[in-house]
Amino acid sequence: MGTEKDTRTNYFNIFNDKKPIVVRRCSLEDLEGVIEVNEKELPEDYPYFFYKSILDNYPESFQVACNSNGKIIGYIMWRVERAPAIHSLKLMNQGHLVSIAVLKSYRRLGIAATLLSNSMKKLKKYKIDDFVLEVRVSNYLAINLYKKFNFTTHNIKEKYYRDGENAYYMTLKA
Ligand SMILES: CC(C)(COP(=O)(O)OP(=O)(O)OC[C@H]1O[C@@H](n2cnc3c(N)ncnc32)[C@H](O)[C@@H]1OP(=O)(O)O)[C@@H](O)C(=O)NCCC(=O)NCCS
User: Fold this and answer.
1) Is the CB of 6 inside a 6 Å radius of any atom of ligand 1?
2) Is 113 strand, coil or helix?
3) Nearest to 163 by CA among 147, 133, 139
4) pTM for the predicted model, two decimal places
5) Is any ligand 1 atom within 6 A of the Cβ of residue 105?
6) Model pLDDT for residues 10-30, shown as the tens digit of each residue
7) Core-most of 58, 107, 138, 171, by most CB within 10 Å?
């Protein structure tokens, strides 16, 4: 669980019309707000215990963005997996992006970019070799975001999503 001290360690300020937006580590108390953002912005929902297990296992790379009232307006969460490396058969640690979302009214302020860069730095603690993610082939906003971070498309996962949409499997060498 994130303590007061923990949440202060990763403090970033983005100024939205002079009101600061803070990006910091997620705490247990933040999970309800994270779930609210997820339910508003993404079709993929997860049960509470799923968020809790990501927070318990990978707390440092689970980041939230809050507005000046402390409301959660965005989040990012990752898990770490042991899997064959992208360009060899050797087993390596992969940082797998589980989910990222920012509320519509706070978009295009650099919040997702801050969440990504901050959490990717934190993931290095797990000796990550590759960062990997899936994204809907129609989700050009997110695809642009990942390209900005130099992710490239490795392959397409057919019918990856429950509604039958394909995913791009995007990867980046750490
Ligand atoms: C994708 C998402 C997280 C981006 O959040 P954001 O805070 O608005 O993104 P940022 O302001 O940090 O933008 C970073 C980059 O993303 C890309 N991007 C974001 N919004 C974009 C838009 N409307 N049009 C084109 N590119 C866009 C751009 O490359 C942008 O860099 P730039 O501003 O230098 O051009 C947000 O649109 C969202 O929550 N979407 C719904 C949830 C989702 O699809 N998550 C991804 C699931 S895989």
Assistant:
1) no
2) helix
3) 139
4) 0.93
5) no
6) 556 666 665 789 999 999 999
7) 58
